[in-house]
Amino acid sequence: MSTLISKNHSGWMVKAPQLALILITIIWGGSFITVQYGLNFSSPIIFVGLRFAAAALAVTLISLKSLKGMNLKEVFAGVVIGIMIAIDYGTQTVGLQTISSSESAFLTALYVPLVPILLWLLFRKKPHVMTWTGALFAFIGLVFLTGNGFAAIQLSFGQTLTLLGSIAIALEIIFISYFAEQVNVRRVTVLQLIFASLFCFMIAPVLGESQLPGFHWHLAGILVGLGIASALIQLVMNWAQRMVDPSQAAIIYAGEPIWASLFGRMAGERLPALALLGGLMVVLGVIASEWKPKFFRKDPTEQLKQDLS
Q1: Number of CB atoms found within 10 A of residue 150's CB
Q2: Do residues 139 and 133 lie in contact, with contact meaning Cβ atoms separated by under 8 Å?
Q3: Most exposed: 24, 64, 89, 220, by fewest CB within 10 Å?
Q4: Signed CA dihedral, 88, 121, 114, 3: sign only
Q5: Number of domains observed in the structure of the chain
C-alpha cells in the first residue's frame, strides 16, 4: 500500500493521486445540499438520470480520442460500475426527500468499514481486527443517528435507503479498483456514466416517475454543475484508484460527511445533539477501521516494506 505522505528532497508532500481524491471529496460533500435543492424541481430517479446524462456528455466530449478500440471487458466493467452508481445515487437521492443532507452524508460514510468487510466476503481478504472495531463504532453511530439511541432502534424509510446506497458505494469502490488495471480508464468512465443514466431512466417508470421535469433555469444550472462535478469525480476516482489501495481510498473519502455537514450548516441545517454524537461515532469508526497500530502487526519488517512501497 502506498502511503498518503511521501518524502522528497524538499521535504514532505502529499502524493498527487491522494490529493486528487481529497479535492473531489470536498466537491462530493458539497453535492448533498445541492441535490436536496434540486429535488424542488424534479422527481429523484429522473433527477439522477439527468445528472448522469449530463456527466456522460461532459466526459464524452473530452474523451473522444480515447473511445476507439472499446472492448467487451470495458463494456462489462461499465455496466457493473454503472449499476452500482445508479443504485448508490438513486437510493441516496430518494432518501434526501425525508432526511437532512448532513444526516445523509454521515449514513453514507458507513461504506468505509464496509469496503474491507465486502473484500473479505467477495475475495477472501481477511479484515484487520481494527476493521471490526471501526464497524462497531459505526454501528453505535448509526443507532444514535436514528434519533432514539438504544431505547428504540428504528430506521426511517430515508435512512434505510441511504444505508443501501452505502453498500452500493462500497461495491463501486471495490469494482473500480478491480477493473482499473485491466481497462482503459477514460472509456470505462464514459460507459459507467452512460449506463448509470440509462439504468435510472429504465427504473424510473417502475417507481412511478414517468414524466420529465419542465424546464427551469435553476434545475438546468444544478444539472450542468452536478454533471460536471460527477464527471470529474468519476474520472479522478478511476485514475487515482489505479495507484491508491481501495481501503486507503475509502479513508480519504471519509472526509466527505464532514464537508457535507459544514455545507449543510452554512445552509441552515441543525442536527440534534444525539444525531451529532452519532455522526462523530461514524467518523471515529471510519478512522478506526483504517488505523493499523504497530502492536497489531504480526511481522514488523514486512509491514515496513509495505509502508515504504
Answers
A1: 9
A2: no
A3: 64
A4: negative
A5: 1
Q: What is the pTM of this model?
A: 0.74
Can you give the residue range of the structural domain that contains 116?
26-210+223-290
Q: Is residue 296 part of a domain?
A: no
Q: Which candidate, 119, 86, 87, 92, places its Cα nearest to that of 245?
A: 119
Please tell me the predicted confidence (pLDDT) of residue 307: 45
Nearest to 187 by CA among 49, 73, 24: 73
**CA distances for 34 relative to 90, 146, 227, angstroms:** 15, 23, 12
Q: For 193-205, what is each residue's pLDDT tens digit?
A: 999 999 999 999 9
Torsions phi, psi of 255, nearest 5? -70, -15
Q: Has residue 218 been placed in a domain?
A: no
- Is 38 among the domain residues? yes
Distance CA 243, CA 171 (A): 18
135 in a structural domain: yes
> Sign of the CA dihedral 266, 270, 274, 275?
negative
